[in-house]
Amino acid sequence: DASRDTCASCGGAQRDPEEPESRLSGDFLEAVKRHILSRLQMRERPNITHPLPKAAMVTALRKLHAGKLLEDGRLEIPELDGHPTGNQVLEENSEIISFAEKDDLVTSKSSLFFLISSEGNQNLEVVQATLWLYFKLLPSELRGRRKVTVKVYYQEPGLGSRWNLVERRVELKRSGWHTFGLTDAVRLVFQKGDRRQNLDVRCEGCEAEGVLPVLLGLGDESHRPFLVVQARQADAKHRIRKR
Amino acid sequence: GLECDGSSSLCCRQQFYIDFRLIGWNDWIIAPSGYFGNYCEGSCPAYMAGVPGSASSFHTAVVNQYRMRGMSPGSMNSCCIPTKLSTMSMLYFDDEYNIVKRDVPNMIVDECGCA
């Protein structure tokens, strides 16, 4: 019996009948909160002072088939809402959607940055990273597709470090989203333990073709550029798989 | 596994649902709207550990065989623990206002048993 007292989960920790239910559930609630935060590798819950513009969030989630907006403005995430997925996932897969920010110290309209990494996702291994940019077609006499060359410059981590280029020829029939692979860039950020990815987006031919890349400062929140990073726990590969 | 319904003190699963709105976490957790913080409680008497459905491991089955032949290996007693867990997918804001979608394995207790 002595061993029963020591084994915390043996036979269930006997409750003191006098203990008020409310204090128990209070302690228990704290334990559950701690459990959730520790599984998300966070010390405490994030402090959300200025919520993200809903338009930007809904667009990104809709683009990634992760959610849809209900009539009452609530966001329903089909495979998530309210019920555990129940699928047995051995590896912890993560998907991070980061929204572009503007550096007030940098006057150039074409520069933007993303704060990708945070406390809860440091030991992640980047599987794929994709930049989503929206291009608006301006009224023009031109007929047919408009062809432009988009150049996305990304800076390697560290002050004053090198800039690399991802370039793509884009043909547009209508306004819409276009994606650019930035896996190498974001992998570098995570490897260096950095958090910030500086970008500079240029477009050759946009002016002549009447195409407007929607970056920041145009007040068009639902077309705010965003970065999607697919990642998995770095140690997942070495984890002993359940037999 | 058994569900705790107050009728017995045997090892069972206690359901415990937390609505994130009630604890003020719905501002940073986008989905799901709550968490099944189920847990195991109750006793594991010797005959219980012999119940095939509750033997949660090969080790338990072997120990039960010892028991049934009266060769109890020391003061081995079994514990009421989760015997089946499932994944929870979460969509939340991290401290950089990124939206993170994460599949967290072994997050929800589906069944309890003696091991």
Low-confidence stretches of chain A: 1-14, 81-90, 238-243
Helix and strand element order of chain B: EEEEEHHEE
Stretches of chain B where pLDDT falls below 50 for ≥5 residues?
none
Could you say which overall geometry of chain A the principal axes of the C-alpha atoms support? elongated
Percent range of helical residues of chain B: 10-25%
**Radius of gyration from the alpha-carbon trace of chain B, in angstroms:** 19 Å
What gyration radius of chain A follows from the Cα positions, in whole Å?
24 Å
Oligomer state of the chains in this structure: heterodimer
> Largest contact between protein chains?
A-B, 60 and 49 residues
Structural class of chain B: mainly beta
In round numbers, the mean pLDDT of chain B is 83
Number of strands of chain B: 7
What is the element string of chain A, with H for helices and E for strands? HHHEEEEEEEEHEHEE
Q: Could you describe the largest sheet of chain B, including whether it forms a barrel?
A: 3 strands, antiparallel
Q: State the secondary-structure class of chain A.
A: alpha+beta
Question: If you had to describe this structure to a student in words, what would you say it looks like?
Answer:
Chain A is α+β, with helices and mostly antiparallel strands and 243 residues long. Chain A is 19% helix and 32% strand. In chain A, the strands form three sheets. In chain A, strands 3, 5, 8, 10 and 11 form a five-stranded antiparallel beta sheet that branches. Chain A has a four-stranded antiparallel beta sheet with strand order 4-9-6-7. In chain A, strands 1-2 form a two-stranded antiparallel ribbon. In chain A, strand 1 (68-69) and strand 2 form a beta hairpin. The longest helix of chain A has 19 residues, at 21-39. The radius of gyration of chain A is 24 Å and the shape is elongated. Mean pLDDT of chain A is 78; it is low at 1-14, 81-90 and 238-243. Chain B contains two helices and seven strands. Chain B has helices spanning 46-49, 58-68, and strands at residues 12-14, 17-19, 29-31, 34-36, 39-41, 80-93, 99-114. Chain B has a three-stranded antiparallel beta sheet, with no helix packed on it. Chain B has a two-stranded antiparallel ribbon with strand order 1-5. Chain B has a two-stranded antiparallel sheet with strand order 2-4. Chain B is elongated and about 60 Å long. The interface between A and B is large, with 60 and 49 residues.
